[in-house]
Amino acid sequence: MFMDGWTLLHIAAEKGRKDTVSLLLSNGAKIDQAMNVHDIETLGNGGTPLPIAASHGHTDIVLLFLSNKAKIDLVNNASDFKKHSD
Question: Which Pfam families match (predicted)?
């Protein structure tokens, strides 16, 4: 884990690195690992890799997270996320 609670999975989700996300998930990365409270308050997105990927337009990674049972209810703006995913 890096400063402020970011993990390699958070970074790969932000950067759109689908192969890296897939590799990390297959090796046991915690899909619903939240960042620290400060980042959640600042970013307002729940602090998990799923909304980070969504906010950067990485639809392929969002679908990968959802297929791996990422919890959408951990997202603060879940209704906004659902609107964009329909």
Answer: Ank_2
3-class state of residue 13 by DSSP: helix
Q: In the chain, where are the structural domains located?
A: 3-78
Structural tokens at position 67: 């297929």
- Answer for the pair 61, 13: CB distance below 8 angstroms, yes or no: yes
Q: 3-78, superfamily in CATH?
A: Ankyrin repeat-containing domain (1.25.40.20)
Q: What angle do CA 27, 22, 71 make, to 5 degrees?
A: 90
Residue with tokens 């990365």: 29
* Residue whose tokens read 């603060």: 76
